[in-house]
């Protein structure tokens, strides 16, 4: 997948979160709601996160150098990992701290209807961002479930934005419940409980993202479907079978393929070169992300 779909989802999320952060912080200043403060910090973190994802895409486009001969595609994985850490530290930890403090020292809310109005508007803006991310993800998700897409996607930005938007929407609902119950019952402790729920939610999402981005940073190979397609493409002509194969994603759009191929015996050198070139061409046709292909010919010793 090109970065265009991910960029569109990131820009939609950045625009929505920037506006929401300003509105939420204004709501906190008016109402004193800890849920609003936690959501304000959450939106500021999300806005910063989208900026980091855009930075990662920009850095990944740099040309390969002698020091980094395979390019900078993994910059996108690195900055997505940083985003997950920020979501945990700025979002989850702060919300948990503020929520526990508000439970231990509850304070009545002022102008709770203002908070409710801001939260409702924020839900609308987050829904716009979420729908955009869903639309862009559908283009590459295929028949996988959403959980499989998040776990298996080699494109980091869309799963990050999807989970962030999911967390933002649920967090807004928790904040709305906390503020609403505080007003209905006259017990401001509910505002603190809503804040703790936001912190727990963000922590879960952050841990999922940290685990997935760490796996991509270490290096993940082709999916089972891609690997089957590559092996089928390599076999053909005078290539009898694939002796062994290794793959690794150097970036979301760049797959490294290294394989040892068993060729028919008694081929001339020019014929061997032709078979290797043809095998590379077949792989590139079936799996466009296979940009770097290194093939080692060998005799099919089963036929010698």
UniProtKB/TrEMBL annotation:
The record's InterPro entries line, in alphabetical order, gives: Cation_efflux, Cation_efflux_TM, Cation_efflux_TMD_sf, SLC30A9
GO biological processes:
zinc ion transport
Q: Which organism is it from?
A: Amycolatopsis methanolica 239
Tell me which GO cellular component terms the UniProt record holds. membrane
Q: Where would you find the membrane-spanning parts of this chain?
A: 9-30, 77-97, 109-131, 160-181, 193-211
Q: How does it sit in the membrane?
A: Multi-pass membrane protein
Where the record annotates domain Cation efflux protein transmembrane, the positions are 10-217
Q: Does the keyword Transmembrane helix apply?
A: yes
Going by the UniProt record, its keywords in alphabetical order are: Membrane, Transmembrane, Transmembrane helix, Transport
Q: Write one Gene Ontology MF term.
A: monoatomic cation transmembrane transporter activity
PANTHER family associated with the record: HUEL-CATION TRANSPORTER, PROTON-COUPLED ZINC ANTIPORTER SLC30A9, MITOCHONDRIAL
Cellular compartment(s): Membrane
- The reply to whether Isomerase figures as a keyword in the UniProt entry is no
Supply the name of the protein: Cation diffusion facilitator family transporter
